[in-house]
Amino acid sequence: MNTIDTIINRHSYRGGYKQEKMPRKDLMKIVEAGLSAPSGCNKQTTSLIVVDDQDVLKKLHSVIKPPIGETAPAMICVLTRRIYAYRDKCFSVQDYSAAIENMLLAIVELGYQSCWIEGHITDLDQIGHKMAKILNVPDEYDLVAFLPVGIALEDMKPVKKIPFDQRAWFNSFGTNLKE
Which InterPro entries does the UniProt entry name for this protein (predicted)? Predict the structure, then answer.
């Protein structure tokens, strides 16, 4: 698949995973793609923990409520630090978002599936904090998201997208893109 096809064909996968151990070389490629993402003022606020040990995965899943991605043979946990680039500008959210998107694309390119899990782990129930404790993450880092990774058990179901011409225009809002 070329880059554009990978981008267009990537969708969030929330189903079950085959219980095949992921090769470390593939996990390393995925993480390398994440760490290669752009970073505001090159502050490199994003760090990653790859979990492929089944005992550690069980501990992590014991605190993830509601359960999601529990059958994936690997998980990539996304950490961030608040490092200010200049004045009061911190680009940590943009940095980890770019890293996650790069990893999601690499995951699909390598024949795996995943889903960006963030919302319910950063809510008041502090799931990300509980996960960080299990992984011995220092206090200056926040665990803000995780990606379950593996081979999908089910076929991908494309999601319905709002039509292109209702979301993209040339030169002015609502201007038709057609020549």
Answer: Nitroreductase, Nitroreductase-like
Q: Is 158 exposed, middle or buried (0-12, 13-18, 19+ CB in 10 A)?
A: exposed
Quote the DSSP letter at residue 113: B
Q: Please tell me the CATH code under which domain 3-166 is placed.
A: 3.40.109.10
* Structure confidence at residue 70 (pLDDT): 94
CA pair distance 25, 59, nearest whole angstrom? 24
**What pairs with residue 89 in β-bridges?**
86
User: Alpha helix locations (H) across 19-146?
Assistant: 24-35, 54-61, 92-109, 127-134
User: Rounded to an integer, what distance in angstroms lies between the CA atom of residue 34 and that of residue 28?
Assistant: 10
Answer yes or no: are the C-beta atoms of 76 and 49 closer than 8 Å: yes
Q: Identify whether the C-beta of residue 106 lies closer than 8 Å to the C-beta of residue 149.
A: no
Q: Is residue 178 pLDDT above 70, yes or no?
A: no
Flag whether pLDDT at 173 surpasses 80. yes
- The structure tokens listed for 73 are 């043979």
